[in-house]
Amino acid sequence: MKRVKKAIIPAAGLGTRFLPATKAMPKEMLPIVDKPTIQYIVEEAIDSGIEDIIIVTGKGKRAIEDHFDSAFELEQKLLETHKLELLEEVQRSSNMVDIHYIRQKEPKGLGHAVWCARKFIGDEPFAVLLGDDIVKAEVPCLLQLINQYELTGKSVIGVQPIPEEFTHRYGIIDPVEKYGRLYQVKNLVEKPSKSKAPSNMAIMGRYILTPAIFDFLEKQELGAGGEIQLTDAIQKLNELEKVYAYNFEGTRYDVGEKLGFILTSLDFALMNKELSAPLMAALEEILNRKNTYVG
């Protein structure tokens, strides 16, 4: 059985939820404290043993490539001014792993973005990590899925339970059997209403897939929202070979919408030794000021 060594990170979305901030800046480059969101995703892939990453980009995403490239003038200035810790941080993003890029020429959906990387993947199993989800876990989320793939030899999807009223925002699995935190999947449904959801186990932006998925993505069939949906292709794959879902351990942060992004930034800042105390003091001051206005 081949090891999972390659990963796809789709990053071609328009980021409309964050306009006007994302008019000229990719949403993947919006910072959580002092690091762009996509770097957290790349670091998780590296910590999980991934050796090659392909980022699927679109128009206006050049900043992503620049971030993971060398910045000679900046690095030289930091060296000359003896800011060695900052220099190490800057160089880290360009020395982490081999990163490749391909452009999704039309915004046809997540399934199409993954299909664009088919030649890079070849006939190997591979990972997909979505940039809207950051997972903080003792064992990296993707590594947890890779471990399950090595046990089953089949595609594995990362899931977590959600409140039933939010099922319309996610792909939802219909589990048929459970083995601890591992589920065999009967069906997958893209963004069902609460009344039609087969469970509350939602797909959370992490996948290990076998290359057979490309046979179904190649058909370019349109699904929810008039787009080529990855969930639909996984459902077709499930009819050919077993697909599993794993309820991964860790805290998942939704940085794909405004409130989740703000809460993630606050939580990560509170975990920062330098920022925690002054941030708490500032938050208390804001709350007191707000209560004064309300009173």
From TrEMBL:
Pathway: Glycolipid metabolism; diglucosyl-diacylglycerol biosynthesis; Lipid metabolism
Keywords: Nucleotidyltransferase, Transferase
Chemical reaction(s) catalysed: alpha-D-glucose 1-phosphate + UTP + H(+) = UDP-alpha-D-glucose + diphosphate
Ranges of residues in domain Nucleotidyl transferase: 6-258
UniProt KW Transmembrane helix keyword: no
GO biological process: UDP-alpha-D-glucose metabolic process
Pfam families attached to this UniProt entry: NTP_transferase
EC number assigned by the record: 2.7.7.9
Family that this chain belongs to: Belongs to the UDPGP type 2 family.
PANTHER family in the cross-refs: UTP--GLUCOSE-1-PHOSPHATE URIDYLYLTRANSFERASE
The protein's name in its UniProt record: UTP--glucose-1-phosphate uridylyltransferase
Organism field: Paenibacillus sp. SYP-B3998
Gene that this sequence comes from: galU
